[in-house]
Give the backbone structure.
Amino acid sequence: MTTAAVPTVDSTDKSVRRGRSSRSSTGVGRPGFAWAAPAAVFFGLFALVPLVLVVVLSFTRWNGLGSPEFVGLDNWSRLLDDPVMVKSLWLSLFLTVLGVVVQTPISILLGVWAAGRQRNRAVLSAVYFVPLLLSITAVSVLWRAVLDPNFGVPSQATWLFGDGNLFGTQAGAIGVLVFVSTWQFTPLHTLIYQGAARAVPQVLYQAAQIDGAGTVRQFFHITLPQLRNSIVTSMVLMVVGGLTTFDTVLILTQGGPGTDTTNSAYYMYQKAFKSFDFGAASAIALLLVLVATLVSLAMVRLTGYDRMRSTMEGV
């Protein structure tokens, strides 16, 4: 007499089916589009719609009153022939490069140090992060008063600042802009590097110590390679922020002396709210968006950040 084979059910299959049935019964699973709808609507209303309006206005002539008049590429041709515009674009790129060159090494060193367990590290880190809590306007007003050539620190330390008028020369004014931006925004990038440095596995340092590597070699051969993705992220933020810097220039130098610190963002403000040429101002704004996007994409592409390779392979 033969017995029919009884099919066996694997325990794994049972658990999988049980999980599926429980998810279907409770309705718990991957979040649907409804969860992203509020953010998508917000982004569309306050980012995409204004961007589309700026694109349209860049091909018109409009002084803020009446109806915009379509002029085609007239705004763009005028900007390309405008020496102040060309100079402001190069100045924006120059200030951005200076910001990256100055802030990146300082932020990395401070971030790696803040990730350690030194005595009083938490207190010193908290004090250092205070500028991050202040608004750009408040910081600019503060340093404008501190560096005032008549009543500020330079007037009392002529042995260091010469005549005390740091805003009277292009080099001095640019130095002030770079210093103030570094003072305020370095804590943000330090915070990024602090979190990334704490995520580096300690086993890498322990293995390096066994091999006889000192602190400096560990920093250059372990810490920096592990911070690669964080460095790219930080630099992209610096590039976008540097190209769109406006508040600091408006309060500290107002584009002076002359037009020596008139960057593209401040020139856009002048075109829109002083010359009432909103068409040309929209063209400048669109140009800034294009330049910032292209530079950011080039950085991501050249550094391999878009492929998101793991920095902890073999751990």
Observations:
- DSSP finds 15 helices and two strands in the chain.
- Confidence is low (pLDDT under 50) at residues 21-26.
- The CA atoms of residues 75 and 280 lie 5 Å apart.
- The radius of gyration is 27 Å.
